[in-house]
């Protein structure tokens, strides 16, 4: 059977710390050739002229909540992965706090089965740890699953792992990347009770970063790191939200050699406590969006490589749910469609380079999770690409939001950059707001 062939001409290729002008030949699912100039050798080659556009590897989002199974009134794998493709995210790793939770081998395979039929983007899942499922954790094959997720704070269901003996056993028992949500529950409970006594049901949303405080984050993160150093575990700390936490991490060695790594999310780089008055519970996340100084320090740590990855923590809720008062409004918001445009906006503001964005959203997640043949523009790699027009402004409006929940914390924001094409496994799956009719997503594999 003849392989499908696509030739991308005249692109500004952003890859491995440089930007070069050139052509890329895709044959079937893979990159066949990269050169300054490639000619189409037959008439049945799809030729795309990328003159003036930038070609980036497809982003790999290491932390999303697509809500399936059990919470599909908010989102599902089909709708959210489609939104991700429109946002230039070609691969995602989804979290285990669904209903039922992904804490047994059987439930994990059931999610893979759903994704195999409905996902628009390449997919994998985290396996969830609890206080009593070590036997199930030991069944997981590290070559076929992204990693292990532990909630050391802010869990749903019974996923809070708060037994120190169990925690140490888990850290000692697995070679998988252990990704953790770090907020100290006791500190938060104490702070929340004090605010309930002061405000009753009417706690202002601006108190969220005081209730879910810097102290709560730092205490939990530092304990997790201490345990990782003691046990030799491979630890990845999700969604840092404070400048203070960034000092717990090192930039002294390359990412591939690090045992302890960290990530920052889009919302912690974009919003600050100044935005609560206008955005209200729409920017209520756990960990909380904190001060302008924290935001600046997070960006600084991202640029100097103490922080390794940019992710979304995409976690939709309905507008009705988010419109409740402080104590009842759930934390989380939708982000996959707007994450890359938001980072490109920071590029336009001269706060980060295109090369650094690609490093943190594409290369580094691939390195950190040992994702096989993705995250780079290299011969022999899967052809997961995004074409971006850096000078094609558009405004986020209800009618162009693709999330099932139908809203975005970026509503009303005008982005200068537009994603015009997304390629997945060699296929053009998104072209100027139009999707192809066939799904070509694959289960991620891991080179471990």
Automatic annotation (TrEMBL):
Keyword Metal-binding: yes
Domain Amidohydrolase-related: 55-429
Co-factor requirement: Zn(2+)
PROSITE patterns found in the cross-reference section: DIHYDROOROTASE_2
InterPro entries to which the protein is assigned, alphabetical: Amidohydro-rel (IPR006680), DHOase/Allantoinase_Hydrolase (IPR050138), Dihydroorotase_CS (IPR002195), Metal-dep_hydrolase_composite (IPR011059), Metal_Hydrolase (IPR032466)
UniProt cross-references to Pfam families, sorted A to Z: Amidohydro_1 (PF01979)
Family membership noted in the UniProt record: Belongs to the metallo-dependent hydrolases superfamily. DHOase family. Class I DHOase subfamily.
Protein name: Dihydroorotase
Lineage: Bacteria, Pseudomonadati, Bacteroidota, Flavobacteriia, Flavobacteriales
